[in-house]
Amino acid sequence: MTEKKNKVFIATSLDGFIADKDQGIEWLNSFPEINEVDTGYEAFISKIDALVMGRTTFETVLNFGIEWPYKKPVFVLSNRLKKVPDELSGSVQLVRGTLDEILKQIHNQGHHNLYIDGGKTIQSFLKEELIDEMVITTIPILLGSGIPLFGELSKPLKFKCIETTLFFDKVVQNRFLRFEN
Fold this sequence. Notes:
The structure is a single chain. The chain has 181 residues and is an alpha/beta fold. It has a single domain, classed as Dihydrofolate Reductase, subunit A, CATH 3.40.430. The chain has 4 helices and 10 strands. It has helices spanning 41-46, 55-62, 99-108, 119-127, and strands at residues 5-13, 17-19, 50-54, 74-77, 92-95, 113-117, 133-139, 147-148, 159-167, 171-178. It is globular, with a radius of gyration of 16 Å.
């Protein structure tokens, strides 16, 4: 049987936000030197079959004004969008339904190791206990408000920190694996 893993690779502010109160992410450049070093993203993405993101994250990436950055298939969770831009039709698919239905559809296409991205999407996967690993890079800035990485859960989920990396004596990256008692 093929192993299936759902993983997160994301940055947060020191107070746990992934975007500011205006949904902006400019604060990620507070320490621009972090963009000059290998933070493990390439190694992470090399072990991923496909990405799953929410509509807001998809639209944010589209608005970066750059060439589509993903070489792997991308599945966008959306009940609103009816189609993707024509130039992305071969690499981006819209999906809807319950997370179990969506995962079954993605797995049936041969994608088993998934990168889960976007605040609401990550929160939804956590609520359903569907996140196996998280790499969280903490940028030492307090935003005070914004879009939080974590939301309400019906019960605590336990993770263990298996790796910590410090960049420039400022930015901390932790890698967590889910475990059961």
